[in-house]
Structure prediction request, 84 residues.
Amino acid sequence: MKINLRFFASVRELVGTGHEVLEVAGPLTVGEVRTLLIARGGNWEYALAQGRALRTAHKQVMCDADTVIGEGDEVAFFPPVTGG
Prediction:
């Protein structure tokens, strides 16, 4: 399945993109997607590290790591405080 990923503020700066379409075997949870992205290493691992303060949204609604995502859904990652 394909999902739409969005990255905001410092997360976007660290990973070098604000948007990505990711093809994964589903269904997955938001936490499992985060783990997949962390496995890329480098800035991905740093920006999305499990101990790092990070908020997530599923279809533009705040969510937790256990939220199940489906085909075409949007998942966003951003720091607890964003500007502008």
Remarks:
- Residues 12 and 68 are 23 Å apart (CA to CA).
- The mean pLDDT is 94.
- The radius of gyration is 12 Å.
